[in-house]
Amino acid sequence: MFSENKTAGFILDEASRFAVPCFFIISGFFWRPDRISDVIPASLSILRKIGFFFVIWTIFYFAVEFSGIYQPVFTAKLRNFIIALGTGGPGYHLWFLPALIMGSILVWTSLRMLGTKYTVIACAALYSIGVAIGAYGPLIGVKVPTFVYRNGIFEAPLLLLCGYLMQAKATYVSRLWFFLLAVAGMILHLLEGGLTGKFPSGHDYSFGTLFFAIGLFGLFRTLSAPVGRWGADVLGAYLIHLFLIRIVNETFSFSNIGSALFATLCAAVLSLLISRAMKMTAVTRRLVTP
């Protein structure tokens, strides 16, 4: 959508990288200590609830991919179908769901067996490894597929743990400090994007992304009605937004950054409205509500 203005596209792509990390943080924030301390029942519960979303929406995106609605991006090879079991295949944004399952189970198990202190250390180490072989991979001579590091093993655990730990601590931090943390994190994230040579496509998560997401999450928590009331519709909007973005991208051509931004905003708003509308019936509500 931003092929005519690569710099603007790069900045917007980088700026949008907070979304999934924020989802992880939000998920961890709502963990109940009494529930997650019993690891096996908690693991079976999240596997059932989130696994359902992943299966249903992966089927949807595969159906759309081969329907001719838009130009396919998925190559029908056995290897790709196997990888899709953890990434969503043509619904490539769905990787968040299995990563949420895997990361949650890892953190819960670690908290139970190692305690908070060593879980923090372990999660920080895993995140650092993920960033090293992912965003910084080209600089250190490591080249691995995205699904190797962008998953529930390396990058999800620390974000989930941050959300969980913020249950008790976030109320003691002012909105200003969260704002400054978000700005500093975004600046660092942009600098890392340039440093790792990803221009103009943008890069995945790096060290700045962590602070960027934590800062924005802290700010999001202060939102009040009417904006805050749309928070419950974000998951559904996330699940459907790629479908809308791809249709818009292949249907229209954008001659300037203004029209591309407007189309992106319209797709985001429409995604939220569809998510809200799907809650009106019992059948469709199950597709967007845990």
Task: Please outline the helices and strands.
Blueprint: H1 6-15, H2 19-29, H3 33-36, H4 39-65, H5 78-87, H6 96-133, H7 137-140, H8 146-149, H9 156-169, H10 175-195, H11 207-220, H12 234-251, H13 257-277, H14 282-285
Low-confidence stretches: none
What radius of gyration results from the CA coordinates?
Answer: 19 Å
Q: What global shape is seen? A: globular
Order of helices and strands: HHHHHHHHHHHHHH
Oligomer: single chain
Number of domains: 2
> What is the share of helical residues?
55-70%
| Overall pLDDT confidence | 87
Commentary on this structure:
This protein is mainly α. It has two domains: 8-169, no CATH class; 223-290, no CATH class. Helices cover 69% and strands 0% of the residues. It is built from 14 helices and no strands. The longest helix has 38 residues, at 96-133. The model has no long low-confidence stretch (mean pLDDT 87).
Supply the key terms.
single chain; 290 residues; mainly alpha; 2 domains; 69% helix
Quick structural gist:
With 290 residues, the chain is mainly α. The protein has helices spanning 6-15, 19-29, 33-36, 39-65, 78-87, 96-133, 137-140, 146-149, 156-169, 175-195, 207-220, 234-251, 257-277, 282-285. The two termini are 32 Å apart.
